[in-house]
Amino acid sequence: MLNFQELKWQDKNFYDKFFDVSPVHYAEYSFLNLFAWRHAYPIEFAEAGENLLWMRSGGPLSGTFGPVGNWEAVSDWEEVLSCFKTGDVIYDVPAGVKNILEDRPNLKFTHDRDQDDYVYSVKDLTELKGKAFAHKRNRVRAFLDGYEWDYYDLTPDYFEELIDFQERWRIHRDLTLNQDEAESLYNEDFAIKAVLEKWNEFKLAGGVLKVDEKIIAYTIANRLDDKNLDVMFEKAFPEYTGSYQAINYLFLKNYAAPAGYEFANREEDMGEPGLREAKLSYNPITMLEKFQLEIL
User: Fold this and answer.
1) pLDDT, tens digit (0-9, with 9 covering 90-100), for 247-274
2) Which residues are 43's β-sheet partners?
3) Which of 3.40.630.30, 3.30.390.10, 3.40.250.10, 3.65.10.10 would CATH assign to domain 117-267?
4) Do the Cβ atoms of 140 and 249 come closer than 8 Å?
5) Architecture of the domain whose range is 5-116
6) How far apart (Å, rounded) are the C-alpha atoms in residues 210 and 204?
7) Phi, psi (rounded to 5 degrees) for 62
């Protein structure tokens, strides 16, 4: 039986012991991601033996998901799976877990493409070489040559300006969104503010891009491990040609590459066609697959 309990700030060190030893670090499972989105998606966790944690979410995307931990070290999967019954569905199961369990006849795995993490080469996105990156290269050049701009590392000194920008960006987007989409943006506001409130508690970094002394784009990223950086939030005013491409390029060039990160995880696309097109256009080097698991 799984004994779920609410995920609280005080659980960070305990949770990180499981996350750090996970064979693959999915952005969704970082403590910061779970903590930041807890207002929209309340999170509970339960320990399953000494190697795994299962998660449970409330809100619009309710259900059990996971696990987090060293799934390769589990010696008795029968015991782990005994916590579930016929008909149960577990979401966002890592590909590594699927590979271990997929031959069991009482388990059905279904690839959930909408939830796959996009992973990019930092080197690719800072050099933008070759035909595959010609469009991005041209967009970056259009911004850098077309505006009087300034780029700054994101520090607490810019938080007030960033929140003001975020509100202006959201209001601008609200004009074209339905009610559910607008609510999603309000939930994102809570998540961004939660991240800023805990800025000094994590290995966070970011950048702000200014034109005429006003922020017109920013990015916020979180360390997943020594090689992987999670780009959690990235916003820009699209009326500035190339602004999205420029903030991505400048942040990775000024922070990620010098800090030794090899890969940028830009999370999932949630099945949104426009977001999928945009993320594919940056030429990911791999996708971290996730699966739904049904107990038969």
Assistant:
1) 999 999 999 999 999 999 999 999 999 9
2) 57
3) 3.40.630.30
4) yes
5) 3-Layer(aba) Sandwich (3.40)
6) 20
7) -80, 155
